[in-house]
Task: inverse folding
């Protein structure tokens, strides 16, 4: 292995793009530099302005009640008869209040995450954080999730990135953001106390199961779609997960802090359940915890996640040997994630040229900011930029997360936008940045003679920066 | 220099003959025909869009979510005495009356499990099993049209930043989505194109495609490009303008898709432009608070209906040569779930609309909604394979030969006979 080459590959393929000076600091010891990042505590985002999910949910809850109360009083005062009929002035006023609460939270969270990506000196850990946030994906196109996406990542992903998969699976599955995203908060066992009470009172309220969380837990988070489960397993797991809900304004009764996870025993479907051939006695909340622990430990889960990791870091169609090595590390280490990452780093396939992956828009933006050492001043701008280049922060649009093959990102229109943006960056920075000096610092031994020559012959400093950012080796990793 | 002239001089040598003077032949079978494929991702509830209000099982199983009978408050728009349309679909109802809409019901792809992602994969690859190939049936169909050369200019466009799977494959296609960034000067563009052609053939081809598409979009939609604000990277995209508002999108139905649909119409109106366009939509996965005549899904459907109406208006006379196929990966449970929504199901409805469509009818071998008729005791039972619709459309509308349909476009589909007579004679 060419030691010089490992610096550029470590910084660009495993990291978030080199900052000036980073390749020199790696000093040809790419694998060591990556392994060293796995030591120590997981970096948290140091921003005291960011709030907890519980606090945000409590505010949302309060605002919703205020809106409801306003509607009731409008209806009561006879204004327009229908009160808050859709389209009425009162209804529109109320509707605007939610975005006014949600949007600043989203901007602050997305901006803080972006700033961390640009500034971090442990970019491999940040890449892994984003990998897992995308594995246990939620999406802000469900509006309330825009308020929770950032705190979800900080609370349920980051603390576990250097821990055990089992803990991350439990933390994400019970996090209010995931519960809300996959509609589990009201899922009620047909034989639960709550359902029977409602039936006795002949209440006109729907009761029953919502199987969304159970299905995606198996299909997307653990064993994968070919992991050997059936519709019956989905149905039974959805029964196991009934009662996994969120504490609300009934905290006087439940004793739980509003906006935090709450197991509502009254909604839980009683009885033992068989999932993937194993019988789980009814231990209430513990029943779900036990199923999740077993799902995390299944060989299918190791294979599924090893494949995703290898696809993310190595190649669209990852080499079988690398997948096998990572999956084995997964099983041997009983889900210990640093063990898995070390196996990935130790895969010779991960250090080969040419670069097998086309950068996602997010990686492209972050690597340009890092390479040019651009300041992240305000939050609003970068957030819009991610959307403009095709990857809205925390907005994959589906629980499967963003796709991870080059063909998902290398569309013609999307390439042109990248180049236009690169050109704009050149115009802003070309007078003070020297691409001739910068390109070797960012691309190291992956810098081609053709690109070097194009930069050398550029008509202006601005054009030289644009050519560097538009070059194939900067587009790929 | 105009972007197009610039291209002629520089990129033609790169292999992608975007501005080649090969003319297409409108005389060729299907040369004038236009096809729009709308992917409805998330499993759109066909029992909400096309309620079988006269089936006694419908109201019984659907409960609060059932759409009422026609001529009741919030009731369905009448179609044929058995089926209706969701009340949000006013334009589609109008198209039905004008004999420009065929509703197909109890339709499914060959996929029978309930994963969105595998279901969409089957819907897009056209293979019976998910993840069999990395190309789409629509692209392979374009490649199979007789008289086409591999170097011919793009016959298909995705109105998206990247081509969705259904449009990927051997035939040259392109993609377009609104940019709101300032265009580059031609000298910089030329240098980047040169760098790509020496180093990276894929990027060279993609760049050439993008410029060709942009040239078409610029010609017809003259509007000033937005320039960047003062700080690098702080471009504030016109969220409300680009058809994808950031958060809490509200306002008039149709705003969501307005810019995309207008662009699609511009591309398809070109006499020698692409024949096929793909539009991608999401947001149909209604597990929670689906709503009935009003509510979440009703709002989304109104947006979709407005988009179709805008497409008709944008296409002008070309609407008469156009067929729009709208399909989703699978349907939803017949019964309401525990959270006022529906879970993943099997059969659903599909929609074929346009001036070229021989419409005004519902095509359905209706399996019924009584409990013993349901698929796996929960879903609408499929009685029509969506590939039958696709095959019929490709054969009659675009002139794709039957042999190709049976081999390269939809392998292992011989048992699925093409539906005929979908288009006006």
Result:
């Amino acid at each position: 292995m060419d030691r010089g080459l490992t610096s550029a590959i470590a910084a660009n393929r495993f990291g978030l793009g080199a900052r000036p000076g980073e390749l020199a600091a790696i000093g040809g010891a790419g694998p060591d530099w990556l392994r060293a990042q796995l030591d120590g505590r997981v970096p948290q985002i140091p921003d005291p302005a960011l709030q907890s999910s519980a606090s945000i949910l409590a505010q949302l809850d309060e605002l919703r009640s205020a809106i409801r109360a306003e509607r009731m009083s409008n209806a009561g005062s006879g204004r327009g008869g229908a009160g808050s009929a859709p389209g009425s002035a009162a209804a529109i006023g109320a509707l605007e209040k939610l975005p006014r609460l949600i949007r600043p939270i989203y901007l602050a969270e997305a901006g803080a995450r972006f700033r961390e990506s640009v500034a971090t000196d442990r970019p491999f850990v940040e890449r892994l954080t984003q990998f897992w946030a995308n594995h246990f994906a939620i999406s802000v196109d469900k509006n309330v999730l825009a308020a929770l996406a950032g705190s979800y990542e900080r609370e349920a992903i980051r603390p576990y990135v250097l821990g055990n998969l089992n803990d991350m699976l439990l933390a994400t599955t019970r996090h209010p953001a995931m519960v809300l995203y996959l509609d589990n908060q009201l899922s009620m066992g047909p034989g639960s106390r709550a359902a029977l009470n409602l039936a006795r009172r002949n209440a006109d309220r729907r009761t029953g199961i919502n199987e969304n969380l159970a299905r995606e837990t198996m299909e997307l988070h653990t064993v994968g779609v070919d992991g050997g489960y059936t519709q019956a397993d989905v149905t039974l797991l959805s029964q196991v997960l009934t009662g996994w809900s969120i504490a609300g304004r009934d905290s006087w009764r439940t004793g739980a802090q509003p906006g935090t996870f709450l197991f509502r025993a009254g909604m839980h479907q009683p009885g033992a359940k068989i999932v993937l051939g194993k019988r789980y006695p009814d231990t209430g909340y513990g029943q779900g915890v036990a199923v999740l622990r077993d799902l995390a430990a299944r060989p299918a889960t190791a294979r599924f996640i090893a494949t995703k990791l290898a696809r993310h870091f190595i190649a669209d169609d990852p080499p079988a040997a690398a997948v096998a090595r990572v999956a084995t590390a997964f099983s041997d280490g009983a889900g210990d994630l640093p063990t898995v990452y070390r196996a990935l780093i130790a895969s010779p396939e991960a250090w080969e040229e040419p670069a097998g992956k086309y950068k996602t828009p997010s990686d492209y933006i972050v690597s340009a900011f890092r390479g040019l050492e651009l300041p992240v001043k305000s939050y609003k701008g970068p957030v819009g930029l991610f959307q403009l280049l095709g990857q809205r922060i925390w907005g994959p649009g589906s629980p499967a997360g963003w796709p991870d093959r080059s063909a998902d990102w290398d569309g013609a229109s999307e390439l042109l936008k990248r180049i236009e943006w690169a050109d704009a960056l050149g115009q802003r920075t070309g007078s003070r940045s020297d691409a001739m000096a910068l390109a070797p610092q960012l691309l190291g031994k992956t810098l081609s003679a053709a690109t070097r020559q194009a930069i050398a012959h550029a008509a202006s400093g601005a054009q030289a920066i644009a050519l560097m950012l538009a070059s194939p080796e900067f587009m790929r990793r | 220099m105009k972007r197009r002239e610039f291209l002629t001089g520089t990129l033609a040598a790169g292999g992608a003959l975007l501005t080649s003077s090969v003319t297409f032949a409108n005389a060729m079978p299907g040369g004038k025909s236009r096809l729009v494929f709308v992917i409805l991702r998330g499993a759109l509830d066909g029992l909400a869009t096309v309620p079988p209000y006269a089936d006694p099982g419908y109201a019984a199983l659907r409960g609060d979510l059932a759409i009422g009978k026609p001529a009741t408050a919030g009731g369905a728009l009448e179609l044929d005495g058995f089926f209706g349309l969701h009340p949000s679909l006013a334009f589609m109802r109008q198209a039905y009356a004008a004999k420009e809409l065929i509703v197909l019901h109890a339709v499914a792809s060959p996929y029978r499990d309930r994963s969105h992602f595998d279901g969409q994969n089957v819907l897009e690859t056209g293979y019976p099993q998910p993840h069999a190939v990395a190309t789409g049936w629509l692209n392979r169909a374009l490649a199979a049209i007789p008289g086409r050369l591999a170097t011919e200019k793009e016959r298909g466009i995705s109105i998206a930043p990247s081509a969705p799977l259904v449009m990927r494959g051997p035939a040259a296609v392109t993609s377009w989505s609104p940019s709101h960034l300032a265009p580059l000067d031609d000298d910089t563009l030329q240098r980047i194109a040169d760098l790509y052609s020496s180093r990276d053939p894929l990027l060279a081809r993609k760049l050439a495609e993008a410029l060709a598409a942009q040239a078409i979009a610029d010609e017809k939609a003259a509007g000033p490009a937005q320039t960047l604000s003062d700080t690098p990277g702080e471009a504030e995209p016109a969220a409300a303008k680009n058809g994808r508002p950031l958060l809490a999108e509200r306002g008039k139905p149709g705003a969501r898709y307005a810019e995309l649909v207008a662009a699609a119409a511009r591309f398809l109106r070109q006499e020698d432009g692409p024949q096929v366009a793909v539009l991608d939509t999401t947001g149909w996965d209604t597990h929670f608070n689906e709503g009935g005549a009003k509510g979440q899904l009703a709002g989304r459907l109104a947006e979709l209906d407005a988009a179709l109406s805008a497409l008709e208006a944008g296409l002008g006379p070309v609407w008469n040569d156009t067929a729009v196929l709208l399909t989703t990966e699978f349907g939803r449970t017949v019964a309401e779930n525990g959270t006022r929504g529906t879970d993943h199901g099997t059969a659903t409805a599909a929609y074929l609309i346009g001036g070229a469509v021989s419409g005004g009818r519902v095509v359905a071998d209706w399996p019924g909604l009584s409990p013993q008729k349901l698929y796996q005791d929960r879903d609408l039972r499929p009685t029509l394979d969506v590939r039958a619709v696709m095959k019929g459309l490709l054969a009659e509308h675009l002139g794709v030969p039957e042999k190709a349909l049976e081999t390269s476009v939809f392998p292992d589909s011989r048992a699925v006979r093409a539906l005929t007579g979908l288009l006006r004679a």
Notes: Residues 76 and 83 of chain A are 7 Å apart (CA to CA). The longest strand of chain A covers residues 244-246.
